[in-house]
Amino acid sequence: MAEKLVIVESPKKAKEIQKFLGKDFIVKATVGHFKDLPEKEMGIDFKTFKPKFIIKSSRHKKILSEIKKLAKDKEVYIATDPDREGYAIGYFMYEELKNKAKDIKRAEFHEITEKHIKDVIKKAPQFEKTNFGLFNAFLGRRVGDRVVGYTLSPYASKEIGGRFSVGRVQSPAVRLIVEREKEIKEFKPTPYYVLYVVLEKDNIKFNANYQKAKIEDKEEAEKIFNDIKDEKYAKAIKIEKKQVKQKPKAPFITSTLQQAANSKLRFSPEKTMILAQDLFESGLITYHRTDSVRISKEAISGIRQLIEKEFGKDYLPSRARSYKSKNTQADAHEAIRITNFVNLDQQKKLVEKKGLSEDHFKLLKLIYERTVASQMADAVYDRTTITFDIKGYEFRTTGSILRFAGYKKVYQEEETENIQTLPEIKKDEKVKKLDQKLEEKWTKPPPRYSEASLVKKLEELGIGRPSTYASIIKTIKDRGYVVKEGNALIPTENAFHLIDYLDKHYKWVIDYDFTKNMEQFLDYVEQNKKNWKDFVKELYEKSTKRDIKPISKKMLNYALDLAKKHGKDISDILDNPEALSKFIEEHKETKPTEKQIAYAKSLAEKTGLELPTDVLEDKEKIKKWINKAKKEAMKTYKLSEKQKAVLVKNGKEDLIDKPEKALKWLNSFFKKRRKK
């Protein structure tokens, strides 16, 4: 029987590792986090800030019980992922097994390849000697986020009216999208003018632009246009020729992979991370949650050999390239790179062999190209800039010729400049002017965030960390604060309500600098320089400090309606939130409205669900019953032909088979139409 037990998170990864380690080892998976804070209570003692972690499900109880039996008197390697979350799962497992196992070691796998896994197992340190700061940083984040969410979400829901959730990191992300939308709405376009001439030599036509890219004065633009109208030639007064070298970009880190996959492949950050997880677990890429751009010497050697074989020595710089991470802590990890140094055709065969999809290959191809390009020679351009004189006015043109593709042979960035071919022109030479154009253009508002540009902005502001960008964006979409139209993220009405509310009453939650400082605090906790409880304490004190309980317009109107109905004068308590809340509690209507009763009865007919008498007499009960019945009704709901036509017209035909999502989108669409 095997004497050694290896514990990982994923069953797929366990299966892959088992192949490499053979019969002396048993490899078991925890199936993600097996412990977490309870769902229906805070789960934190506010005197000590001690959290109450519980086993997540009966399935996890069964898995844990099996692992405990297997670990008895064995050598155990805890090999959960090499980040805070992975370490936390490992730490919980260590606590469960430390009195059962013979010995517990920590193994960090950065790639799932036979050599790497065997090397890591051989050098694995005792778990007690690893950095417990990783677990403390996890505690700070998990407990701190619970305090903010569970304290402020009920306040926001009650005081705005509706269901609202507040998050330490998600709310600043919503603020970014709301602020951008306000900028767009408040933007007033102004005209400007662009003037250029069309020149020709040796049957080569090219454009030369007036030296001022934007002319803001219409009269000035028209004067220059008219002054040069009759001129047939442009005189070359200055010619600059230079060789321009372009270096490749560093290999991918989590944020740049998410951005590139969104821009080039239209993958959401969440989808990118799911695909990358599969590629990692299948042994095709290194660990995908990293902010390090470093590549190991061994890997660089493999990449350079691949470049020489596939492209030749000319494409290989004389010395290997090295890249430095912004964060010095990051360099314990590597960048996201390929693990098999073979060409693209063979990479595709590996994907097929592992039973992965076409989308997996698309992402692997992107990682392959960026990995290989990062170690290739510069791209070399010949760039010529010519300044022309036309009637005393200067016009400029630039042309580039790619002399050597270098890394561009593999990885193309999206070109931002228009590269045109220029004929050979000498100084003082006169070139024929064929035409001239004066175009009126208008300034444009800033673009809405895409998922790629939002990730970039979050990283720039220091909000969140590599492992959280995808979940932040997923959360704000799932909670109805943001809808995606095309590639743009658009805030909903609820997003505006939430940010207005937080701006008035809990400004710190959406303060970018505060959020950034709290992320840095967690980094210090990880380095054992700060205490995680101080992190939670600060969030707790800020979340529970309520000097003035605000009175929302909705709350005020409701109280006035109740006062009128019951013949009460409440003029003396209109500015007193506590008294107003007490009045509402004592006088609020507990019986459902006729409209609610009628709606519930019609749903009961449609769905066949039982509608108990006590539900028809209680406002809260009928609300819950209606929500349950609506979900049931949605299972058999059929969209009308008119609804389908609107979806097709707006490029949303993929929602036709998803009636619940379709209705949500249609409601939002018609609401916006009515506003316009």
UniProtKB/TrEMBL annotation:
CDD domains: TOP1Ac. InterPro entries: Topo_IA, Topo_IA_2, Topo_IA_cen, Topo_IA_cen_sub1, Topo_IA_cen_sub2, Topo_IA_cen_sub3, Topo_IA_core_domain, Topo_IA_DNA-bd_dom. It is an enzyme of class 5 (isomerase). Its EC number is 5.6.2.1. Keywords: DNA-binding, Isomerase, Magnesium, Metal-binding, Topoisomerase. One of its GO terms (molecular function) is DNA topoisomerase type I (single strand cut, ATP-independent) activity. GO terms for biological process: DNA topological change. The active site is at Y287. Signal peptide: none annotated. The record marks H33, R141, R142, D145, Y150, R289, R479 as: Interaction with DNA. Residues 131-549 form the Topo IA-type catalytic domain. It comes from the Bacteria. Residues 165-170 are annotated as: Interaction with DNA. SMART domains: TOP1Ac (SM00437), TOP1Bc (SM00436), TOPRIM (SM00493). Pfam families: Topoisom_bac (PF01131), Toprim (PF01751). Residues 3-112 form the Toprim domain. It catalyses: ATP-independent breakage of single-stranded DNA, followed by passage and rejoining. Monomer. Belongs to the type IA topoisomerase family. Releases the supercoiling and torsional tension of DNA, which is introduced during the DNA replication and transcription, by transiently cleaving and rejoining one strand of the DNA duplex. Introduces a single-strand break via transesterification at a target site in duplex DNA. The scissile phosphodiester is attacked by the catalytic tyrosine of the enzyme, resulting in the formation of a DNA-(5'-phosphotyrosyl)-enzyme intermediate and the expulsion of a 3'-OH DNA strand. The free DNA strand then undergoes passage around the unbroken strand, thus removing DNA supercoils. This is DNA topoisomerase 1. It comes from Hydrogenothermus marinus. The gene is topA.
